[in-house]
Write a structure and sequence with these properties.
The protein is an alpha/beta fold and 295 residues long. 40% of the residues lie in helices and 19% in strands. It has two domains: 73 residues, Helicase, Ruva Protein, domain 3; 204 residues, Rossmann fold (3-Layer(aba) Sandwich), CATH 3.40.50.150.
Length: 295
């Protein structure tokens, strides 16, 4: 359990970048953080706007007071459990940096498998037109569009705040012209059909919600996490209606919880999807499920 005490860097005798980093490393380790050294470095770099190389050069230098105040703020937010990416306002995903805030789920490394599978399908089938349901930061669809040449996409989210972040990220990565953004609860205002439907929907069950770390539970939006009593609510809604929005031979691709492969497969079979396959992430857990429209 992280302590809530407020700490003050100005109590240090030697206020160099080196001493501050050591102080943060020791404090974060005492607080039980998993990556105290990495957290310390990222927060100092964000507050000072120094690259890693520049930070090493400035190691013995004293930061300006405004930087010390900013580091102090970041430090106290971190020991209260706020994730580093939410503090600094960005997260790396698929080799690119994405703006994040309290209104969006921060992209996870495991979700890169969803991007891999989608790109592979596009390269194999020549699919051109994609729909992403629940775009959040836009990291998934932006990664796919950035890695393929002639694809276009519609990115849907129920949250206007999330769509603002996704639009910002799309512009930052130069793909705004190839992605349309739509405020919608799943298919509610969708009117076209697509070659591929892709989604990383909320899939945490009621029981699992209580097991999440405080950093996830308190700082990621509830609507992006909670998938209903059994975690399958979004899958039912999407799969039951997806056939109406898929072109002939269209494909649907989901990220899933590691224990949900059988349940989601059954939902797909019930709705006459065929050639269902499951892919594992780097940890060996079931992570992505893909299925084709039967006709």
């Amino acid at each position: 359990m992280l302590k809530k005490n407020k700490y003050d860097l100005t109590s240090l005798q030697d206020l160099s970048y080196k001493s501050i980093r050591r102080f943060l490393l020791k404090l974060f380790a005492e607080q039980g953080l998993d990556t105290p050294g990495l957290d310390a470095r990222i927060l100092i770099m964000a507050a000072s706007q120094l690259s890693h190389a520049d930070l090493l050069i400035e190691n013995s230098s004293a930061p300006e007071r405004s930087i010390i105040i900013k580091i102090n703020e970041f430090m106290n937010r971190r020991i209260k459990g706020e994730p580093v990416d939410k503090i600094v306002g960005h997260k790396e995903f698929y080799g690119r940096k994405y703006t994040v805030n309290k209104n969006v789920l921060s992209p996870r490394p495991d979700t890169e498998k969803l991007v891999d599978i989608a790109i592979s399908e596009i390269n194999k089938s020549g699919s051109k037109n994609l729909l992403e349901l629940g775009t959040g930061t836009g990291a998934v669809i932006i990664s796919i569009i950035s890695e393929t040449k002639s694809t276009i996409a519609t990115a849907v989210d129920i949250s206007e705040d999330a769509l603002m972040i996704a639009k910002h990220n799309a512009k930052a990565h130069g793909v705004s012209q190839r992605i349309s953004f739509l405020n919608s609860s799943w298919f509610e205002t969708v009117s076209e059909s697509y070659d591929i439907i892709i989604s990383n929907p909320p899939y945490i069950s009621k029981t699992e919600m209580n097991l999440l770390s405080s950093g996830v539970r308190e700082f990621d939006p509830f609507v992006s996490l909670y998938g209903g009593e059994d975690g399958l609510e979004a899958y039912r809604e999407i799969i039951n209606n997806a056939g109406l929005y898929l072109n002939p031979k269209g494909v649907i691709i989901f990220e899933i919880g590691y224990l949900q492969a059988e349940a989601v497969t059954n939902l797909l079979l019930k709705n006459e999807f065929i050639d269902i396959s499951v892919a594992k992430d780097l940890s060996g857990n079931n992570r992505v499920i893909k299925a084709y429209k039967s006709r």
